[in-house]
Each structure stands twice: as C-alpha cells, then as structure tokens.
Amino acid sequence: MPNLHREDGPIEGARTLRRADGSALEVVVTLEAEHDAEGALARWIGTWVPQLAHSVAGDLDERLRLAGAVFEHALEGIMVTDTSGKIVMVNPAFEEITGYSAEESVGKPPRILGTSGADRAVGERIVRELEAAGRWSGEIWNRRRNGEIYPQWLNIGAARDAAGAVTHHVALFSDVTELRASEMRLEQLAQYDTLTGLPNRALLFTRLEQALAYARHSKTLGAVLFMDLDRFKTINDSLGHPIGDELLVAIARRLQTHVRAGDTFARLGGDEFILVVEGLTAAGDAATLAMEVADTLSEPFTLAGGSTLYASASIGISVFPEHGNDAAGLVRNADAAMYQAKEEGRATFRYYTPALTAAVNLRLEMETRLRGALDRSEFLLHYQAKYDAAGKVTGVEALVRWQPHDRAMIPPNHFIPLAEDTGLIVPIGDWVLMAACKQARQWLDAGFPTPIAVNLSNVQFRSKNLVRRVREILAESGLPPRLLELEITESAIMEPVHEAVAHLEALRELGVRLALDDFGTGFSSLASLKKLPLHVLKIDQSFVRGLPDDKSDTQIVRTIITMAENLGLTSVAEGVETAAQLSLLRELGCRSFQGYLLARPETAAAFATRLGLPAAAYGCTPPVVSESASELPSDTVLDSIVADSDSTKAATAIEIAEIVSRYSTVD
Ligand code: C2E
Ligand code: MG
Ligand code: MG
Asked: pTM for this structure?
C-alpha cells in the first residue's frame, strides 16, 4: 500500500476497489497494528467501508431519492409533525399499522390516532421530554382505526434547520403486539402448568409469600389446603396416562369454578393441588372449605371416552401466619397434615396441629347434632321470673336449653353462636318463639297473664320474615301481643340505625313490647337510643355485679336508670345475686329485678308453682334438671332475702362445648 506508514495508531486511506462486474467501488481502508506480549508487531487488521455517502454527497437529488425509498419501504411506521403539532407526512407502514390513511391523518394532530384521555398524561410527559432532550423513546399503547388497542415502540426525534431551530418532529414506531404476545407465552410457560393451565409451583410460592406478608401485616388469617387425590396412581396404572391426565384437567376445571377471586388454586405436579385462601375469620373456616372441595369432587367425572370416574382427595391444612415462617414451610406443614389425612382413611382433612383438627371435628360433630336437634325435639325452655320492687312477679324470660338425649344439657352461649353461623338460628328461634307464646297462653288461660320475654338473635332480628313470623306465631298461639316482649341486643341496632328503627317500628305496630338486652355493653349513644321505639332497658349483669362497692359501676347503673326514666322506659336489672345489690338498685329507682337471688331459670312446672299454679297441670315441659337453687314462692321475698352463696355457679356446660368455643377462633 503506497502511502501507509508503520505507526502505532490506526492508518486510514482511500482506495478504489473493483467489483466482479468490473465497476469501481470507492472505499476507506483502515489498518490497525496488533502487537505481541514483547511489543513486537504481530499483525495488521484491515477493514474497509464503501464510501457511499461520499459518492452521492454532492448529489442532493440522489440523497432525496434514497431517503424517499427508505420512507416508502420501512417496516416501521413514520410520521412527521410540524411545530404546530399537525401531521405533515406519514408512510405506508404508518397506514398499515394504524389503519388511518395519509389523507385522513395529514393536517390533523397525532391525537386523532386514538390516544385516549387516560393517555393524555403520557402525551404531556413526551412533549416535555422532547422539549428538554430533543428525543423520546418508549412503549405506549395506541388505538387502531378499528378500535383495537395495541402496544407500540415509539422513537421521536427533532429535525432542525441550518440555524439549529426545530422545524419538525419525526416519529418512528413499530407494532410490538407479537413481541408482547410471545413474552406472555413465555411467562405463561414459566408460571403456569401446561396440562391444566393452573398456576404452577413457582407462581404459587410467589403468591403465597405475598399472602403471608399481607396476613402478618393486617393481622388476618389464611390457609393452605394441600390436596392429594386418593388412589390416582391406580387410575393412571390401570387406565393409562391419557385418562389420568384427562381426569386431572377435569378436576382442575371443576374446582377452579369454586375458587374465590383473590385466592390461588395451583397444581404442584402429579396429583397434588394447592388452594391458598385469605381473609378467614377463624381457622376452622378452612375445614368448611375442605369439605366443600370434597363435596365438589364427589360428583362423578364423565370423560371424553364416555367412562365415568370417581375422585376423592386427602387434604392437609396449614394456617398462616402461625403454621410456617415462609411459603415453603407452610406447604411442607400442609403436606405433613395431608399424610396424616391419608393415614386416617383418605377422603378427609387434617390440620397441621392435632388440637386444631380435634377442635374443628368437635365443632363439626356439634353442628351435625345441632342440625338434627329440632327434629329430635331436643330443645326446651327454662323460665326466669322477674320481680318488681313490691316482690310481685312482673314477667318471665324464656331461655332456651339444648338437651341432647345422650349428653349433658348445653347452655345457649355454647350453641347459639354456632346456630348463628350455620343459619340454624332461624328455625331454632322460630321454635323458641312458638313454644314461649304457647306456654304464656296456657298461663293466661289459668288466670295468670304473665308477660313473656323472648331473646332474638341478631341474625333473626335482621331476617326479612321476622315481622311476619311474629304475627303468625301470635295468631297461632293465641297470645295477646301485649304479653310478648322481644329482647334484642345493642349490637343488633347498631348499624344502620335507621333500618333497625324501621324493623322495631314494624314490631311495635304488632303490639308487642320491645326490650334492649345487656344494655351498656355496646356503644349505642343516647341520641340513637332516643330514636328507638323501645319499652324496656335491661341493665347488663356486668354492672350489677360491681354493686354496691364499685363506684363506677354504681355511677353507670345510676345513669342508666335515670336515662331510662327520662326516656319513659322501664329499667330491669339483670343478674341480681345479692341482697345488697337489690337494695341499692331499689334505692336508685330501678323498676324490675331478675337474678339468681330471686329466681333461677327453671322448668315450666317450677315456674307455674311460683305463680301458684299446680305444676303438673301448667308446666308444658316435663320436669327436667331444674336450675332452681331454691324455691322462692313468696311475696315477701324481697324483704327476707338471704344471700345465697352458691348462686353464682353457672349452668352446666359440657366439656365438648367448652373446647369448641375455645378453638372456634384463633387469635
Ligand atoms: P340474657 O338474655 O342476658 O339472659 C340472661 C342470662 O343470665 C341467662 O343465661 C341467665 O341464666 C343468666 N342469669 C340470670 N340471672 C343470673 C344471675 O343472677 N347471675 C348470673 N351469673 N347469671 C344469671 P343463659 O340462660 O345461659 O343465657 C345466656 C344468653 O343466651 C342469654 O343472655 C341470651 O342472650 C342467650 N339466649 C338464651 N336463650 C335464647 C334464645 O332463645 N334465643 C336467643 N337468640 N338467645 C338466647
Ligand atoms: Mg335476655
Ligand atoms: Mg341480658
């Protein structure tokens, strides 16, 4: 090479090469020296670049012709706008991608390209950046002429005149729909199970970590249900893998329809599935879900070939946050519980902790028994007398009892919450109302018009049919409405107050009396109390218990009595156990008293005796275990009371019910 020097820097020079067809090609050749470890020259590396630009540099027409060809044939959409923001030029690719022709677009602002109002903020950001940096690139969503929304990769740059002032903006964009779709397919492959389309182990663990973090943060409960199909291996081995796969898909489909939005139903692999649920109120709720799953699976599966298969699953449950520090731990523990379920006969569920399983099973057993209790006539009523200051019986409260044939009697606090949860409270409450009204009618017929109070659960109070049912029961039993008093609790009237008022008014129109039970334990304000059409205010036993020594209890009771007086309501003190309590309550102006001191809840027969009736004739219920500590059929009872040391003993509870109530919520 003629004019090259052996120097260390790159050497450049122009050359004319000859193509095979004989035509000349102007190139720029660059030579670069490479040295070995000792610094001696090892070799030269040469590159050459055709001097295209140079060859047409002087020929403006030629450059324009080439630029035009690029514009016409580019696969990217190109749009040129002027400084007033109007489109001045678009290329064929633009027309193809957007669906707008050149005639439709030129002269209009780019906004016509369907960028919606929501994207205005994006548009403003682009303009700001263009002004600052002269270019912008990024992905945006746009709308085609046919309304279809699509992702586009967009580059915008400024074109300047000789003086450097911006004259136009050039936007180049490509449709990246396909790219995004294949990315999504990749993501789908990475996170979802190919056979069933359910989330796979990887996605499950991500979601479970999030759910666990959320549960810790918000102090809520969640559960991992690990299900393993029973005898799936047998199906696979005897009927073949294709049938096994088909069954797995069918099971996944069916269970998926039962999954609430927000919960995760995943396939771990093989015949193992996992359901992650969040926002449980009690750990025991997970068992309900497990049973729903079992129920759902119990319907036979009909496969494409026409064969029918039956499936069942063993389910292990771990509850979070307490049964594991992380997703892996929760799944492992649910897995361990699942093995327990398998060992104990399959088609069942187990919790990670045996105590929880035991508690849930007790509750389930109790629920089953409670469901049959009405049919087996296992409910009965006890009656607790109310006295006035003169020592006269002014009324009676009906208190329900559950007496299973083969077990000890169960007090209401142990089964009413369960009855409320399961909806059984409605038929049970109905029975109570009817039984109480019939009993009171019998006493009325015997010449003792005794007002009878019946407790309503919140669930009952809110039920649409309540007013109609009360009316029907009054008619059927023949009890005059004024002899029925309905006791509701403060929580029932809390929210929304106006609905409660409407409900109470409808009841009041029937002519029944209305009492607010356990008053003082809720948060009803004086203002809301004024709006309620009530007759009676029952002071909760927790305040009465502190009398006469506790100053604040005394003050509260005094205030409630005065308030009742001012609102024209009768005050009744509950849980009066000592003579001292009674005498202070009388002093404070309380109208009516109820408590072990005066009378315990007792059988209908015992209460009839209290009224002065022959028990045999006027107690509907056969005499069962009476809670009556002592017989107190005396008019002068109030003046001759001796405190009964044993009177505070609560009614009999059976062990099972206690365990159940202890485990019914986990905190
Ligand atoms: P409640 O309506 O406040 O009934 C008063 C409770 O206090 C009764 O308990 C009664 O036995 C008890 N008691 C009465 N005097 C004394 C006393 O001097 N000392 C003490 N320590 N306790 C006394 P019981 O019968 O176990 O009922 C508990 C709760 O169960 C009732 O509270 C009521 O809320 C509910 N309940 C009872 N029967 C029914 C019913 O038929 N339907 C509904 N929905 N709830 C009911
Ligand atoms: Mg009550
Ligand atoms: Mg009460």
From this structure: 0.56
